[in-house]
Amino acid sequence: MQIEIPKDEILNRFITYIKIDSQSDASSSSCPSTEKQWKMVKLLEEDLNKIGMKEVHLDKNGYLMATLPATTSKEVPCIGFVSHYDTSPDFNATGINPQVHENYDGKDIVLNAEKNIVLSPDYFEDLQAYKGQTIITTDGTSLLSADDKAGVTEIVSAMKYLLEHPEIEHGKIRICFTPDEEIGRGAHQFDVKKFGAEWAYTMDGSQIGELEYENFNAASADIYFKGKIVHPGYAKGKMINSMYMASEFIQALPSEEVPEKTTGKEGFYHLSNLKGNVEETHLHYIIRDHDKDVFDLRKKKVEEEVLRLQEKFGAESIVLEMKDQYYNMREKIEPVMHIIAIAEKAMHSLDIKPIFKAIRGGTDGSQLSYMGLPCPNIFAGGHNFHGKYEYVPLESIQKATQVIVKIAELTALES
Hints:
By secondary structure, the protein is of the alpha+beta class. It folds into two domains: 7-215 and 328-413, Zn peptidases (Aminopeptidase); 217-326, 2-Layer Sandwich (Alpha-Beta Plaits). Helices cover 31% and strands 22% of the residues. The strands form four sheets. The chain has an eight-stranded mixed sheet, covered by helices on one side. It has a four-stranded antiparallel sheet with strand order 12-13-11-14. The protein has a three-stranded antiparallel sheet with strand order 4-7-17. Helix 1 (7-18) packs across helix 3 (146-164), helix 3 (146-164) crosses helix 10 (394-413) and helix 8 (338-349) crosses helix 10 (394-413). The two termini are 19 Å apart.
């Protein structure tokens, strides 16, 4: 059966969602971390009720779950689909003004002529793969929030299609939209037991065809350096500059093992924030590696360098706060590889070439897999996330929507 999902319907839904500012905020302890995320999830709640989803429930922490009832009486595993509705706090997401470029000609796309901001295939080579398609971009002043409003759009669109086509046999399907994924908390309040699926898929990957079940092991490290401020004219033998202490720590880590110099499964230390003055300096690092043993060695390296500097400057002068964030989901997916096989078969049936790659990051699925819900990741279609050069081909959103429908169909067919 041909899966025909109108592009205009998908485009309108996607643009409606991305225009809502739903940035998360790591400095907040609430869940969701920002009040504005409620506007987005309440609209999603309305949309799910409008299309006819059952058991639509929005909990006090901003997790929205719903059920698509089975259309077959045979025994079929309950599966799920998950996306996050928060937007990255790393770049402006206020006043998103999407630009729709139909029949892309393969040349430079001027995002903002006044500011000379250009999306060029000379730099972003992936653009060439989408010649002739409809490209949705920013106007150069914000991110697009295709991460993960594309995934949200795909799940809603697929559920609507399945509701309108009850002749497609499928089992019970559960969906969930989560807050705060961009700050690493997307799965923290996720009720796996209530969700009730045997396995699920996050729609949170990048280019068309991505099918991922490996990701980084991840930790965060906050290091606080405490110095002593004295008038510079009388500082000899008295002043201790915390910024120099922090600089010595930075220089002690391998200079080649940073995000901008690594690829594939290569891990890194990433200094993502630095704030300081003479009296106190704070460094925030994220530590990543696909290999668990190497990951542990990276954390040990940080601890050893802190200890070395404590011996030099005094134990009270440096404080380390380090914690694990998530782990490589491969360990939890390998025992149930049939869930990958179903997604792979769904893509092949739609003439999509699966791209198996290790995620240089994490998704809700990596945490959910360790919470008892095996949850690999499928492409949502966007590129260049978290910045002004973000874009997504409309056809990729359409294809991802079709993949969801096909997975639902194949799961029933092969049970």
